[in-house]
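Researcher: Re-running this chain for the archive, since the previous output was lost when a drive failed. Same request as before.
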Amino acid sequence: MKAIASAAALAVAFLIGTMAPASAKQIVVPLKAVGGSGEMGRAVLSDVAAAAPVVKVSITVSGEPPGAIQPSHIHKGVCGSNGPIVKPLTNVVNGHSVTTLPGVTVSQLIAMGTYINIHKSAAMLTVIVSCGKIM
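Model: Regenerated structure tokens:
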């Protein structure tokens, strides 16, 4: 009887171990200045512990014009490719932005081949001031 109970306990432990969620991931994406903008910094992407996948994106840049409100996005492709937007991010205001992205993990963003860019302003979306590859 003890052997059966031990075997059952091992089977349950194995099943629980194989059903555990993938470990949370955090990466830092360097954001490099584009076109002589002087705007550079970093984005920290972190998986958030939740019932469903969620990524928190925290952006910090320096060198931006005072009071600037700058749209930012996650795009498919590489910096300079003008790839399609995968996820919009909260505007970068005074060098900072925090966005929560439901339905995606850091690993999925890496696997999709994506990058983050920051635009000069809403009126000048074609001007990219900072960019970094998510990897």
